[in-house]
Amino acid sequence: MNIDWPWPWLERNLDDIAEATGQHLYLALLPVLVGLVISVPLGWAASRWRLARGILVPLAGVLYTIPSLALITLVPLALGTKIIDPLNVQVPLAIYTIALLVRSVSDALRAVPGDVIAAATAIGYRPVRQFLSVELPLAVPVIIAGLRVAVVSAMSLTAVGALVGIGGLGQLITEGFLRNNGVELVVAIVLIVVIALLIDALLLLAGRVITPWTRAGRGVKA
Amino acid sequence: MIEFQAVTKRYPDGTVAVDSLDLTVEDGRITVFVGPSGCGKTTSLRMINRMIDPTSGTILLNGKDIRESDPPLLRRGIGYVIQHAGLFPHRTVLDNVATVPLLSGVDKRTARSRAAELMELVGLPSTMAKRYPAQLSGGQQQRVGVARALAADPPVLLMDEPFSAVDPIVRDDLQQQLLRLQSELDKTIVFVTHDIDEAIKLGDRVAVFRVGGRLAQYDSPSALLAKPADDFVSSFVGRDRGYRALGFLTATGIPVGEVATVRAGDAPERAREALVDGWAVVVDEQNRPLGWVSADLLSTMDKSVDTEALVSGGSLFEVDSSAGGTAGSLRNALDAALSSPAAVGIAVDGTGAVVGGVTADTVLSALADARSSGEVPG
């Protein structure tokens, strides 16, 4: 394989790389967002009803074990989408996200102390407002932890989409192989890893900013 | 007024938590539900704000059946304090206290200024407003819990074992504060505890529950101690109940005798002349007691009565006096006498100055008088 000094190739292809990166982010992040929105009510149901938990949590475990390539090729059959529709990648990614987060959300909600919930009810919260302003905020640290795993795995799984002709940085990898272009290959891999780490760091930071109480140390007494 | 009318709570598995409870909670008083675990006291409390609905029977709040009220709205009008405070860990102390006014639609600024007033009322410094609950001690958290419950100024306050998870000294402090708050606020308070001492200390009326959710006795604390309804109540009320009952009889009017006093710094020879039965109370410039001195002790002092070397005194008891003190009880007086090295209890006035002494005999004859005049149920 041929790894030349990368600058000339990089310069010629900067636009393509930028486009592929944008595509990659769109392909990876939108499903995570959709997955998160779906996971919250599912996780809530699993935290609340034993039956829902008995079905949802094992189901999530099974879904997560389906190989990504299999899921990506199954989706067009199931949904009737065209063979190069971005949904073919995005639906599986959303499924993986849900598989990861349902359990996180459920566990996080179940970990909210009983006396806090009892106090909220006794004080006169209505159920929906209580969930949004007491239970969900307290579940945020655990949900963020699950979300970080989901984002990083979505970033790497999106690359597999290139095998079925969906764009993104994965395309640069397959192209690099075909053209025996080591630079293209390395650039794509590095970009995927770096962007994944950046988003992970951003999530970590955002999580810290919105949960100041978790760092309020004990032992500070007047 | 809260009225329980034939209220029963039976769970699907057949357990009866509360069995046909009839009871009236009076306005502006502290009513304590006390009993061993499994006696239904907490269930009864939680039925008042519809955290639990009864299987049968009716609960009236100010004459109105609580089943006609929307539970969240009903609860916003009833303050609630639980064990471990149940504070919201993700909200600052100020925002915890402001919760109920905010829920009721008060704007944020008004709710927060109200919360700040409440923090002051329960004795929390304003520097704590921005802290999170995890940064407070257990006692401080419990104060925040009380402030939160009072923030919307509800006429009724439910307290579910609020002080049972803090250490005894802090608990005593919180109990005193509750009594002080109640003397200012006149809330209708229902207080649940498993601690009979706490019940007797705080309650205007005490409801003793027995296992199986039956009311064993509903009475004033003094009547509970003097006339337990049955063996269960008398064993639950426990040992020393005769002695503890003295706590409900005021010591006002019991004859206070002379007590020998010497001033700190007096010459030992002068002090020796003042001793009665070999003992005297050493007092400071304001006539406040510092301790006891005996003939033996004086013989070890050469120049003056040394305040470092005194025998520490027993407890003191306060007599009602022109100095504006609150009268102690016969229990305080008897304890003062029994704990004194000279067998004489020191009586002080509102400023803490020595006004005389009492012996155990005096206290006992005062008790006998109270009995014959019918003040003590015999």
TrEMBL record, chain A:
Superkingdom to which the source organism belongs: Bacteria
SUPFAM superfamilies: MetI-like
GO cellular component, one term: plasma membrane
Coiled-coil regions listed: none
Domain ABC transmembrane type-1 span(s) in chain numbering: 21-204
Cellular localization per UniProt: Cell membrane; Membrane
InterPro entries reported in the protein's UniProt record: ABC_transp_perm/SBD, MetI-like, MetI-like_sf
Chain ranges passing through the membrane: 25-44, 56-77, 83-102, 136-165, 185-206
BP GO terms, sorted: glycine betaine transport; transmembrane transport
Stated family: Belongs to the binding-protein-dependent transport system permease family.
Membrane topology recorded in Swiss-Prot or TrEMBL: Multi-pass membrane protein
Leader sequence segment: none
Pfam family, one: BPD_transp_1
Name listed for the protein in its UniProt record: ABC transporter permease
Entry annotated with the keyword Transmembrane: yes
Keyword hit for Membrane: yes
Keyword set, alphabetical order: Membrane, Transmembrane, Transmembrane helix, Transport
TrEMBL record, chain B:
Signal sequence annotation: none
Annotated EC: 7.6.2.9
Alphabetically ordered keywords of this record: ATP-binding, Nucleotide-binding, Transport
Any one Gene Ontology molecular-function term assigned to this protein's record: ABC-type quaternary ammonium compound transporting activity
Xref: Pfam families: ABC_tran
InterPro entries: AAA+_ATPase, ABC_transporter-like_ATP-bd, ABC_transporter-like_CS, P-loop_NTPase
Domain ABC transporter: 2-237
SUPFAM superfamilies xrefs: P-loop containing nucleoside triphosphate hydrolases
Family: Belongs to the ABC transporter superfamily.
Protein name in UniProt: ABC-type quaternary amine transporter
